[in-house]
Write the structure tokens for this entry.
Amino acid sequence: MRIRIRWGGIRVLLIFILATLMFAACNDSSDDKAGGNSTTSETFKISVTTPILGSLTRELVQETAEVTVIMPNGTDPHSFSASAKQVAQMTEANLLIINGRNLEEGLAGAIKQAERAGVPVFTATDHAPIRQNTDTSNNSAQDPHNSAQDPHNSAQDPHNSAQDPHIWLDPIAMKSVISALAEELSALGFHLSNRTDSLLSALDKIDAEIRNLFANIPPKNHVIVTDHSSFGYFADRYGFTISGVLVDSLSSQAETSAAHLAELIETIEEFSVPAIFIGETTSPALAKQVEKETGVHVVSIPVTALPEDRSYFSYIREIALRFSENLSA
Amino acid sequence: MNWVTDPFSSAFMQRALAGGILVSVICSIVGTFVVLRGLAFMGDALAHGVIPGIAWATLIDAPGILGAGIAAGVTIFGVNIVTRNSRLSSDTAIGLLFVGMLALGVVVVSASDNFRGDIVNILFGDILGLGNSEIWTLAITALVVAGVVFLFHRPLLLLSFDPEQARTAGYSDKVYSTFLLFLVAGAIIVSFQTVGTLLVFAMLLAPASTGTLIGRRISTIMATAIVAGIFSAFAGLLLSFHYDLATSASIALTAVSLFFITLAASSLRLTRKHAYDPRQGSARKSNYV
């Protein structure tokens, strides 16, 4: 019994493998550094991951730079992943602006590629105090001053997964982000004249407007329930207490447990919580279940979607209006 | 400028192509035996069985490959235990392990307060995010897999076509079956970060199936599978780049489409009688060995 095999195929295969090996080896030195600085003579290109950061960046640079937003408006930033063309845009930008703190989970690889290509990366959450996701299921009120943390400490510990990325819901935190971004841009040789100051005062103005709007919410209605912990910064800034969350995770990707839901229903009844605020990326089925059980009102909030005029200010005003409509007596 | 070469001008696309080619080579070699031995369901179970391991590794910041390896070992071991200690058929055993491991993966993700790794990334991979170290891992694995298959080609070949003859020749069915399963597990483990656990399965099956439509000899089947796999990686990346499609899904879809196109073409030309028919594999062994 003899076996005859033609090894021609195997030889072809080994040649393929060696060819790809050499290909990979050549990649080490070739294109990697071409992206960052080769386009200085052309328009300054800024790539931004989220539409909300994109809107503020556009307000800041106006038409003097080309701003490309990677995620479509209203998409779930936790699960979005970029197409090949978008990764190409990111690796060819003069500056990449990301939110950070694991918000762009699906973009992690693409961001790494941009870093490898030598593109400077500006991380918004590195430039403002970061909330820790304290245990939200134990009914304890959160003190914003305790949970806030020195941004430099938190930046050194990217593996601490309990950091809340939803910083854009706090206009005052966005002021520090914008100041830092303006510094970064001028360090890259991009001049903003007085646009930084006007954007900062616009953020102050919208903050005052929101406080005014919330002035007539009765104190007992300052206890709210949200979806996952996306409203932490907003609640801290405007004096709300989040007494419970539907999904006990900072990411919209996790599932909830039966025990957690039962506890949440108890909390809602105990505090007679008037409304549950959920982001548009959260499945409303769970919230509806709680609504049926307790009679609490479910309010959908566009957390990741800008309104039609694509303005951050209309966006944050809209959210404030929904809160005040549903909580004012 | 150039529709075919232009997209590969950036470094990340070159790395994606290199990764795709290497995954195709690994999966085609191993996939040939998967198809010939009818191990598709076991391959599927392994592709999903690694998920709890990857999730667990991500939680404790261990390398994903380690977690995937442990989980694959548990899956193979579990299937063996069930088939040996009960009268259940092996596909029931495989199904039990498959669904059990998948459920365990979701439980691990939910039990953590903040799951950092993205479960979507585990399923669909991140071929656009490949770095040089991942490419090297794939390249070394490709060499190891090719070397091991070369060394053990005789028992693997006999087992694929005629288990009985293999036994008379002194090769233990059990030993080499397990050995083959570990090869499959290895291919899945190194490929999951490139094309994802869901789609690595497509690369295991589709190119090798295309190979069986064209070739009679195992070397021809394997070589055809490699060519089909590499073409799928290349075409899938191009399609994804130009039409903004999901990258790894485009590659898998190209591979599966290629199979159906070949099937249609070979049916038309009635060349099937020359090609390998898995249902009659052992009956027509003299054609292959």
Observations:
- Strands of chain A lie at 44-48, 65-69, 95-98, 121-123, 223-226, 241-245, 275-279, 297-301.
- DSSP finds 13 helices and eight strands in chain A.
